[in-house]
Amino acid sequence: MKKIVLFLSVALLSLGVEAQVKTPQPSPTSKIEQVIGLTDVAVEYSRPSMRGRTIFGDLVPYDKLWRTGANKNTQITFGDDVKVDGKELKKGTYAIFTKPGKENWEVIFYSDASNWGTPKKWDDTKEAATTTVKVADIPFNVETFTVMFSDFTMDSAKLNIIWSNKEVSVKIEVPSKKIALASIEKTMAGPSANDHYQAAVFFKDSKDFAKAKEHIDKAISSRKEPAFWYHRQQSLIYAGSGDKAGAIKAAKTSLELAQKAENADYVKLNKDSLAEWGAK
Known about the structure:
Structural class: alpha+beta
Strand content: 25-35%
Radius of gyration: 31 Å
């Protein structure tokens, strides 16, 4: 009986330790995932509300560094190199800090995005891009702090920071033309040597040696520099298709290339195969 009571006491204590009270957060977190042109952009931030308070010049002092939201500092992630108001910014994640003023805001993209709030010690070298933008008046109050994108074109959009009756916007330019041209050139050029190589290995493993042979031959002819592993696969594919002479020729080429590369593993594999196929 004592053991049962002890067990129940421990179980109840464990439940008490693990249980957590859940209540709504005063500044809920939000995440925006947006494609601008061909570039992935994401913003993570917390959203405080006015709740009858005067925001700018009071809760958020003028000309003082602000985390641009609540709780953890606002973060923005770019999937490609971009421009913010014409300034170059490498792809990656940044904290967005601001210095709100009566007429203008300073918007700072800070390379250390791991701060909770503002950094304890500011490092000028971590200012990846800084711009000054004008404040626009809104004819009504936006109760909850909001970050959003607007004014989309093929290669740009505006990042809007809105709260109370104020809005500031930063133009984000993305390399859509560069990405699209690279994609077009790659597609028009057709599959790469590696694409053919991967396909050849797949068809070889699937025992479809006719297709495997087609792709491995294209892979080898497409490479600028010969590769011993390409010719190794060619020898196995030719052997699987019943072309022993072709297999021996490919294995000898692979062996020669492997010896030049001082790759002992492939040297042994090719020698073993040549012996198995009765090469002279």
